[in-house]
């Protein structure tokens, strides 16, 4: 017996509320930076295999944001 696959996929992130950030708001940017930099750096380090390069890429991404 096959079960139907739902159109939407539950990401399982109900424990983390979805934050909304206002463009151009310094406090919102700081909050976004503080909450996401570690995850981004870890992902980039794993992808690139070089922490210094990962730090450069993460910094570039936040400069553009």
What does this structure look like?
The protein has 65 residues and is mostly helical. The chain has a domain at 26-64. 57% of the residues lie in helices and 0% in strands. It contains two helices and no strands. Helix 1 (26-48) packs antiparallel against helix 2. The longest helix is centred in the middle third of the chain and has 23 residues, at 26-48. It is flat and about 35 Å long.
What structural category do the secondary elements indicate?
A: mainly alpha
Poorly predicted runs are none
- Round the mean pLDDT to the nearest integer and report it: 82
Helix-strand string: HH
Question: Strand portion, in percent?
Answer: under 5%
**Topology, number of strands:** 0
State the helicity in percent bands.
55-70%
Biggest sheet layout: none
> Roughly how many Å is the radius of gyration?
17 Å
* Individual helix count: 2
Terminal CA distance reads 48 Å
Shape: flat
Lay out the secondary structure.
Layout: H1 26-48, H2 51-64
Helix pairs in contact: 1-2
Can you describe this structure in just a few lines?
By secondary structure, this protein is mainly alpha-helical.
Keywords:
65 residues; mainly alpha; 2 helices; 57% helix; 0% strand; flat
């Amino acid at each position: 017996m096959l079960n139907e696959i739902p159109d939407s996929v539950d990401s399982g992130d109900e424990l983390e509320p979805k934050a909304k950030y206002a463009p151009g708001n310094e406090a919102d940017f700081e909050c976004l930076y503080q909450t996401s930099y570690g995850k981004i750096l870890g992902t980039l380090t794993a992808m690139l295999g070089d922490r210094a390069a990962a730090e450069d890429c993460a910094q570039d991404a936040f400069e553009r944001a």
